[in-house]
Design a protein that fits this description.
Layout (H helix, E strand, L loop, with lengths): L9 E11 L9 H15 L6 E4 L4 E11 L4 H19 L5 E3 L15 E2 L11 E2 L1 E2 L10 H6 L22 H9 L1 H7 L11 H14 L4 H10 L10 H13 L16 H14 L2
Antiparallel strand pairs: 1-3, 1-4, 2-3, 2-7, 5-6
Helix pairs in contact: 4-5, 6-8
Length: 282
């Protein structure tokens, strides 16, 4: 049975999860693995007493803190951790061969050093590895707790999304876009190129950003993301979808997140007019 954030009473550390971009369920090569270790090591210089840990395929940057009792502040801490993590993601992903996984969920489980990572089919150049400490584990706090508690929350809040409430049917106007909008279609089918290794989260982010600009609601975008063949699809969690949509809306601040309509200059009206034109010509 999975744990919930509400089950956690104390926080004693935060962490970053740095992974090489590669095909799904594929172990990393030695070169990819060392690239992730190098990035974690560079970031560790910002946090005295931090610990670099190999996860087998990537790395964790482990950041101990003074024990902090949540006392019902679970959501506030998660939101502040998201803000900090977003800043760190920009730094990590400047190296286009790396990605930073989402770790702000208080109940998120990390791999224990000393255990074997058996994700994916091993090959001579993509072996399974034992997770282990790269740098010495010190029982001393970093300043990460104070940094995160001082973060200002952006105020970008998505509507309540329930991925179990979707009926599985794609919105009609999205189906029309798949027929007549090549950028949407290429994103949906995974044909766009974002870097050396296209990740599922990159396709999700691109799709969500386009749909936000076109005036789709959060629930509509969630339904589309769950069905997306190029993104995480059915593997996506509620938290992942909410975070992706929130980040997409942050890039389009003029759009009201509580409505599916937007200003007259918004692409949504042009899309809707195009849909009406196509329908009337049938």
């Amino acid at each position: 049975m999975g744990g919930k954030a509400s089950d956690i009473e104390w926080v004693t550390a935060f962490s970053l999860d740095i992974d090489p971009r590669r095909d799904k369920n594929t172990p990393s090569t030695d070169e990819e693995h060392q690239l992730a270790i190098k990035m974690a090591t560079q970031l560790s210089y910002d946090y005295e007493n931090s610990v670099v840990i190999s996860s087998g395929n990537g790395t964790y940057l482990w950041l101990p803190c003074h024990p902090f009792r949540l006392s019902g502040k679970h959501k506030e801490l998660e939101e502040k951790t998201k803000e900090w993590e977003a800043r760190m993601r920009e730094r990590v992903e400047e190296e286009t061969r790396l990605t930073l996984d989402f770790m702000w969920d208080i109940a998120r489980i990390k791999k224990v050093p000393g255990t074997l990572s058996i994700k994916g089919q091993l090959t001579p150049d993509r072996p399974h590895r034992v997770a282990k400490f790269i740098t010495e584990a010190l029982d001393k706090p970093t300043g990460i707790l104070e940094e995160i508690l001082s973060m200002k929350i952006s105020g970008i809040v998505t509507s309540n999304i329930d991925i179990t409430a979707t009926n599985g049917e794609l919105p009609y106007r999205f189906l029309m876009l798949l027929k007549h909008n090549s950028k949407i279609t290429d994103t949906w089918e995974g044909k766009r190129i974002f870097g050396q290794k296209n990740s599922r989260s990159e396709f999700d982010m691109s799709l969500a950003s386009q749909l936000v600009a076109m005036g789709f609601t959060d629930q509509e975008i969630a339904t589309i993301m769950i069905k997306s063949p190029s993104g995480k699809g059915g593997d996506a969690t509620n938290q992942y979808i909410e975070h992706t949509i929130a980040k997409a809306r942050m890039n389009h601040p003029r759009i009201n997140i509580n409505k599916s309509a937007c200003s007259e200059k918004c692409d949504a009206l042009r899309v809707l007019n195009e849909i009406r034109r196509l329908v009337s010509n049938k």
